[in-house]
Structure formats: C-alpha cells, structure tokens
Amino acid sequence: MDSITQAALGATVAGAIAGKRCTPKVLLVGAALGTLPDLDVILDYGDAVSNTIKHRGFTHSLLLLPPFALLISWLYCYFRPDCFWHFKRVSFLTISVLVTHTLLDAMTTYGTQLLWPIEGYFEVRNIFIIDPLYTVPLLIAIVAAMLPKINGGRWCQLAVFLSTLYLGWGYLAQQNIGQRVEDNLALQNLPNQNVIVMPTPFNTVLWRVLVLEEDKYWEGLASLLDADKRIDFVSRPLGDWPLEDKPQTLQGLKAFSHNYLNYREENGTLIVSDLRLGMANNLSFQFAYAEKDEEGQWQLLDAPLRYPSERGLQHISTLWQRLKGDQSISANLR
After folding, report:
1. pTM of the predicted model over 0.70
2. 122 lies in which domain range?
3. In this structure, how many other beta carbons lie within 10 angstroms of the beta carbon of residue 265?
4. Which of 30, 125, 130, 212 could form a disulfide with 10 if both were Cys (CB 3.0 to 4.6 A apart)?
5. Angle CA(115)–CA(126)–CA(254) in degrees, nearest 5?
6. Which residues of 83-105 are buried (b: 16+ CB within 10 A; e: fewer)?
7. Closest CA to 59 of 8, 21, 6
8. Which residues partner with 223 through β-bridges?
9. Residues 271-320 pLDDT 10s
10. Residue 235, by phi and psi: left (phi above 0), alpha (psi -120 to 50) or beta?
11. Domain presence at residue 97
12. Is residue 54 part of a domain?
C-alpha cells in the first residue's frame, strides 16, 4: 500500500493496542514503525528490474519481522526503564504494527515475499495499492485521537475493525467477480487455467480480468454494478523473447509476475511489461532489455532500464463511468 496508508495503519494499530493510554506520542511511534518496512526502497540492487522485484523482500518477511520487533522492544525498554510500558506490551505493539504492514501489502497485486529468504511472492489482490475507502477511516481515527478528552484508543480500535471489514468486503467482491468470470469463460469457450482478477484503481467495485493463453492473453472489465453479466474480452498477443540469452533479471521478473509478461518492440527497443499492474496499454512496470543495432540484430543492454509509461489520472472519469455499469465505454479503458 501507499506510504500514507501504511503510516495511518501503524498509528491506529498502536493506538488500538494502547487503549486508554493512547497519546499523540503513541500514534507517532506507530506511524514511524508502520513505514519502517518500506525503507527498503532506498536500497539499490543494481538495475531497475532488481529494484522492483526485490522490494517487499527481507523487510517484509514474517520470518524476520517478529525477532526484529523483539530487538527494537528490548532496546526501547533498556533505554527507558522508567517507562510504564513493560516489555511484553511494547513487543506486542511493535510486532503487531510491523506484521499488519506486510499482511496489508500482501492484499495488493504487487506481491510480497512473506517468507523471505524462502522464494515466493504472495498476493491476494483484493485491494488496490491506493484505496481511499480503506485509508480515510484510519485518518479520521487519528485526528479524533489527537483531540482532548477523547478516548483515542476506542477510535483507533473502531478504525482498525472497519478497515479489516473493508478488506473482507474486497475479498468477497473478488470472489463474486471470479465466479462471473468463470461462467463467462465457459460460455465464450475461452481458457480458464491462468486467470487473475484484480481491482482497478481506487476501488473494489470495478475489476480487471486477465486470462493467459500460450501465445496471447485476454483482458476484460467487470463491475459489481453491471446489469449485463457478460464480460467482453479483448485478445492481445503476448509476444516472445527474441534472444537466445536470457538474463537472470528476466527469470526474476517471470517469478515476480507469475509469468504474466508481454514482450514487444517499440522504436527498436525490446520492452518487457508486467501485465498485472496498471491498465492495458498504460502498464506501470515496463522495462527496456535490448536495442537493435544498425544491422537489425538485438543487443542486450548492460542492465535493464525502466521504460516510461503514461501514468496519470486521464482515465479516471471514464473509469468512474465504467464502474457504474456503463459497459459501452470498456474499450476506452483497455
């Protein structure tokens, strides 16, 4: 999730655990702990692909976070022996904030290495990486908890409960769309072995569907508000890797994306894109791997580079109309 949401979640989790002892200082500490796992973005792994696929790695591991939290808690209690918070409660708060951070990240489509150093990316895909309906209740609780004569702990407990309910709603909505997708694939005689259902930006009502086949993929949009339950799928070529050499970063990108990759040539550049993140022709993670020389032969770049994508809010109004069930404009979003 985005940094604001993670800080807000950390603050409210800390406030919920503090209860009647919830103070602005507790909220601040919770917010700081909530952003701590994402500090891995400052690390440079050598190239654009590695920086992408190794994010949410060791700093998000459920095998490392608890012992790290215990170390932080021990240091805090060691240097603050006069604090009324004892080690057991400090460690419970610290572990809770760090673990909820990584579990929330695992709800998005990006993927989280929950068991690092064991290989594997985990994602539920029931919430978009930025979703105001999830974040706003957390922010309201933080503001309320800062006010005098307010039981901030109660507000934080309510916000954590509501945000968790929203995650549950997202999962149920995803399953609803998933059943509809399954029915449509059967009716339209399309493959159903490699299918993923993901929320579109900022909501859990309109969902994007990807269906992977051997040499092409199918893409569709489905809203919970659609009157017509038919999903119009658009077919696009997957392309293929044209070189004999396959760099290690390509293998890593395949694992990260679960092989939902598209290969295409653009202006003499070989571009590899993660199909899961973004919208159709406006994908978020695209990488330049090779360029053609004067003889038209592919030459690998020394290191893959991030290829610019048109990331913006230009499709928001169209997205909103499609969310409300207007299926006639689906083509404008794909």
Report:
1. yes
2. 3-167
3. 14
4. 30
5. 50
6. eebeeeebbebbbbbbbbbbbbb
7. 6
8. 206
9. 999 999 887 778 999 999 999 998 889 999 999 999 987 655 557 778 88
10. beta
11. yes
12. yes
